[in-house]
Amino acid sequence: MSTTLTPARRTEPCRQRGDQPVQFRTSLLERLAPYAYVAPFFVVFGVFGLFPLLFTFYVALFDWNPIGDQTFVGVANFERLFADSRFWNALVNTFGIFVISTVPQLVLALGLAHLLNHARLRWAAFFRMSMLLPYITSVAATAIVFGQIFDRNFGLIGWGLEAVGLEPVNFLASRFGSWVEISAMVTWRWFGYNTLLYLAGLQAIPREMYEAASVDGANGWQQFTRLTIPSLRPIIIFTVVMSTIGGLQIFTEPLLVAPESGLTCGAARQCQTLALFLYEQGFGQFEFGYGSAVGVVLFFVVVIAAALNFFLATRTRGGR
């Protein structure tokens, strides 16, 4: 006698009428939640970053009077700007200060980070954290101190030159001298910050790599150039790009180094930067259209310089 087994019928729980909308709403909220988390940043950036930038482009096309009429002039402000010798003077000053402040600053930061990472120091954490002291010091206080150091009559550098039989130098009287004084302030303020960035990258490199290099016969310089530098290349690219952006927008140090000359940074504008020239035209002369044109040009100068540095750094990495 044979029996036939029939498969058991699959039973499904009864779906309630309101389950599907609830699941749909839950999945929709899950998809929208990440956008809600990042939305505050984009809202703040749009209000305080993107809108002022676009409005600057708009104002640059007008003869803008803040309490009067606004007359559309097209590219006349840019034509006037490129024919203005004060603009070219500020551009040269900006790049000059940027070069002689950024290059020594990053080289000093990289060397000091390498020393702190390998040296056997007591209270090593104290020395490492002390690198942030210049960064948290007031820029005004830094300007006062360096103004006294570089002062021709009572400065420490002038005293040292007299001690060896040389004449004291009035740094602010010449273009290059004022560049040196401002660059010293910038280097002092930022080299500690960059040192900590490099030091963090160095501490992420395994010690075994240096030990293996020593076993293979590599000396200290070879380890530094062939192991340390390639390992730190992403951080170096970051510091170079950020230093470029900050260095080309330098404003506070030139403003404070020669307060008696106002916004011109010297009678001959020997240390006036683009950011200071922008402020002079916009808020000193109340030529908002012309000042906005300076801001637009400064924006493109910073973008092109930062992109060029990034391209060269990544191209070097690809070549190696």
UniProtKB/TrEMBL annotation:
Q: Does the entry feature the keyword Ribosomal protein, yes or no? A: no
What transmembrane ranges does the database entry give? Answer: 35-61, 90-113, 125-150, 176-200, 232-251, 288-312
Keywords on record? Cell membrane, Membrane, Transmembrane, Transmembrane helix, Transport
List the Pfam families: BPD_transp_1
**Which BP terms from GO are recorded?**
transmembrane transport
Keyword Transferase recorded: no
The membrane topology of this protein is: Multi-pass membrane protein
Per UniProt, subcellular location reads as: Cell membrane
ABC transmembrane type-1 domain ranges (all copies): 91-309
Where it mainly occurs, coarsely classed, is membrane
GO cellular component, as recorded: plasma membrane
Q: What family does the database annotate?
A: Belongs to the binding-protein-dependent transport system permease family.
Q: What is this protein called?
A: Cellobiose transport system permease protein
Q: Which organism is it from?
A: Cellulomonas cellasea
